[in-house]
Design a protein that fits this description.
Elements (H helix, E strand, L loop, with lengths): L1 H26 L13 E2 L3 E6 L5 H5 L2 H10 L6 E4 L6 E5 L8 E7 L4 E10 L4 E2 L7 E2 H12 L31 H11 L2
Parallel strand pairs: 1-6, 2-3, 2-4, 4-6, 7-8
Antiparallel strand pairs: 5-6
Helix pairs in contact: 3-4
Length: 194
């Protein structure tokens, strides 16, 4: 009889402890990522880019493309994008008509999920500026966003993501994507470390 009472008390204590652990776990807030990552990445934490002859000189001389790379280089992660005239990774510009894109980034990757080549194409059928002019798309603003795709951060479309560099829509005169949002920074640190 003593063993039966002991087992009943032990069972009650285990149930009580189990319920307590369950309540503790459900009360811990879930960690939500404030960025979207494709699960593909560069093997190294350094890559290089060159600018095709189709890219206007003013986009380089104004510092727009350099500053777009620098935003990511200064984000506190190990990853860096440097300029090299011999790189296979390239920024291009061309006239593609009024499409559903003003610029786009594309990558090639191997079977292991590591990027081995990337490019950004600007659609010059739309108006471009390096000064943030109101009726033009800002080169640095859009380049910073597209370099984020090189790093494999995805577009975001929630209204709460509106002021993030990786927000998936852009307007003429917009320049806030030049500066990384803390969630953009968290994304590159998550992928490539600090």
């Amino acid at each position: 009889m003593g063993v039966a009472i002991f087992l009943r008390k032990l069972k009650f204590k285990l149930i009580f402890v189990g319920v307590g652990i369950f309540l503790l776990l459900v009360s811990i807030p879930a960690v939500a990522l404030a960025f979207s990552y494709s699960a593909i990445r560069w093997w190294s934490t350094t890559t290089y880019v060159r600018y095709d002859s189709s890219v206007p000189d003013s986009w380089q001389s104004s510092g727009a493309l350099y500053n777009a790379r620098r935003a990511w280089n200064n984000a506190g992660s190990k990853f860096r994008i440097y300029y090299s005239s011999s790189s296979e990774n390239v920024v291009k510009a061309g006239y593609y008509g009024k499409t559903d894109w003003i610029a786009k980034a594309s990558i090639n990757y191997n079977l292991l999920g590591y990027i081995n080549q990337a490019e950004i194409i600007f659609n010059r059928s739309y108006p471009w500026s390096t000064t943030g002019a109101s009726d033009y798309y800002d080169v640095q603003n859009i380049a910073t966003h597209e370099f984020g795709h090189w790093l494999q951060l995805n577009d975001l479309y929630s209204s709460t993501d509106y002021y993030k560099t990786m927000y998936g829509h852009a307007k003429t005169g917009e320049t806030y994507k030049r500066t990384l949002h803390s969630d953009d920074i968290a994304g590159i640190k998550y992928i490539y470390g600090e």
